[in-house]
Amino acid sequence: MPTPPVHPTAGQAGVSLARQLLLWLLLPQLVLWMAGGVATYQIASGYANQAVDASLLQASRSLARQLKPIGNGLLIDFPRAAQDVLEADPQDRQLYMVSSPPGQFILGNQALPPPPRFTGASQDELQLNTPYFYDGMMPVHERHGQNITTGQPLRLVALYLHFGEDASNPQTMLVQVARSSANRQELARRILLDMLPMSLLVLLMTLIVWLGIRAGLSPLARLRLQVEGRAPTDLAPLQLASAPREVWALATAINTLLAAVQNTVATQKRFIGDAAHQLRTPLAGLKSQTEIALQSTTDPELRARLQRVHDSATRSAHLVNQLLTLARAEPESAMVQDRQRFDLNSLAHTLTAEWVPRALRLGVDLGLAENGGEKASPIWVRANRLLISEALSNVMDNALHYAGPKTHASHSPAQVTVRVSRDGERALLEVLDNGPGIADSDQLRVFERFVRATDIGNGCGLGLSIVKEIIERHSGEVSLSNATPQGLQVRMWLPLDISK
Length: 500
Fold this sequence. Notes:
This protein is of the alpha+beta class. 47% of the residues lie in helices and 21% in strands. The strands form four sheets. Strands 4-3-7-6-5 form a five-stranded antiparallel beta sheet. A five-stranded mixed beta sheet has the order 9-11-12-14-13.
């Protein structure tokens, strides 16, 4: 009975272990790296703002010192050269404005945005000589008599001061100094660019982590390859020279299971082999006795019964011989390991000659195909000669049986042809008959044990399975195909032995 296939849908596979490890190792590092980048950017921007604010405060106090009170007015000692210095750098301009709240313009750039505290605030709420820092936009600024529209962001400082000689009624002066945010934006861009090498380090770290995971999981991959590459009958222990403790424990558990299965299978095979061997002698005696009884009796009814007994004994003896051949073809058998170099052409010639008498009794024309009538050159293979003979004999037995007169439908004589040739680096052994053939749907099934494609005859369904077992044990291949216009072609490939 064939072993039922194991379908992968029987148990749904989960997420890859390598992927889980990669995610658990890299995701926290990536999150921490991004959080560190944001924190670094915020800290650097804070320090940049502090430097800009310090320079703005210094400029505002210097400007306030240039405004000297005279009576109830102001003396502005602010030369043109000082103004040009403040506005010399177009990328980092410093703008200024002096006004007397609530909005009387005195000096500078009138377009500067007012501080938030100034709007709607009374003079009593203003704290003198205390700088107020804020951000604003410069929609329009005037330079050389022209209005130039800009959308440049600004960093500003507002400083409230008292002036005037009347202490009972002091006046308030607002000094504002603004600086373009271009330097701060350039600093932010430089910080981001400086973080790119850190990104490359993260990619390098990802590659190193991935290689480490692959190296750590390689024993599992080797274990999987050992299991995947095995034949169903290979129950040898798994080999892991060095592996982590967890993988070693798994391999040990699998080896224990394989040893138990191997012991069970070996016990069953020994039982089949011993039983078949013990049955050969009594079955041979039964066949002999029924043949003698058939020759000595003339009663038609008794002869019919004896004939049925003889046919059953013959079929049983054939089954026992097939079981013994199958046991010898098992991989654990010593016969499979006992191989020698021989000529496949010579073997085919010898076996064909031995089967000719039976073919004549069945009315079948059996022959060996020769190239141009000359003796074929040797085709050397290294295999167990007895097992290869068993395989070829099984194929020839089937061909003679199913190509005989009882099953041959055409008017031409039944023919079976054996051919040996070279096919690349392999030897090809073919048996061709002109019988009814096998349906395409059954050509793979007939290689299974106890499966027959027809009810004709007394076969047991082991012949082709034995052929497949023997050929595959010798690293070969066997296939079936229907011949044209009718018949069956059995092909068996074996590796050539090129050694001298």
